[in-house]
Amino acid sequence: MDRRPKLAALAVVLRDAEVLLVRRRNPPDAGLWGYPGGHVEWGETVAEAAVRELHEETGVRAEAVGWLDNLDTIVRDADGAVQHHYLLVAILCQWRGGTPEPRDDVYEAAWQPVAEVLAGRLEASARVDDVLSRALASVGGKEA
Predict the structure, then answer these.
(1) Whole-structure pTM over 0.70, yes or no?
(2) What angle do CA 29, 70, 7 make, to 5 degrees?
(3) Which helix H or strand E contains 54, and what residues bound it?
(4) 93, 144 Cβ separation under 8 angstroms
(5) Interval 47-70: pLDDT, tens
(6) 23, β-bridge pairs
(7) Whether 48 is catalytic
(8) pLDDT band at 142 (very low <50, low <70, confident <90, very high)
């Protein structure tokens, strides 16, 4: 097992009063709603990774416009042993086009109402609502 944290990028895309979320097929957050994203490749910036992963997972095109947050994700088993360790970098992206469709390692991709996410009405990964609040604050509560 590789004992180093993995660097990954998350694409946070707002459109009107909606946010683009996906449901993952694979652990650690299988079945939960979260932001499209994945590993940062060698020689790639985090912003480039966010845009690339967004397109690979949903078919949506966007432009990275700013950093939102860093999230440490450490998943342990029942005995406390680390199973997954990621540093996730949330990047605000401006939607440029495309209709979300599940691709790659997601089985559902959809625009979700911001109000539903903030109210906790979706089974979501940790801190999805916090990151969304930060994204809304960065665009002044308006669409991105």
Answers:
(1) yes
(2) 65
(3) helix 46-58
(4) yes
(5) 999 999 999 999 999 999 999 999
(6) 33, 108
(7) no
(8) low
Classify domain 6-138 at the CATH topology level. Nucleoside Triphosphate Pyrophosphohydrolase (3.90.79)
**Domain spans in the chain, listed from the N-terminal domain onward:** 6-138
User: What is the rounded CA–CA span in Å between residue 56 and residue 70?
Assistant: 22
Q: Are 105 and 14 in contact (CB under 8 A)?
A: no
Catalytic residue among 108, 116, 123, 143: 108
The 3-state DSSP class for residue 26 equals: coil
**For residue 8, what are its two tokens?**
């990954």
Residue type present at position 111 = W
Residues in CB range of 22: below 8 A, 6 or more apart: 33, 34, 35, 36, 57, 58, 100, 102, 106, 108, 109, 110
What is the identity of the amino acid at 83?
A: Q
CA-CA distance, 108 to 92, in Å (whole number)?
A: 21
Confidence of residue 140 (pLDDT cuts 50, 70, 90): confident
Place of tokens 């625009």: 111
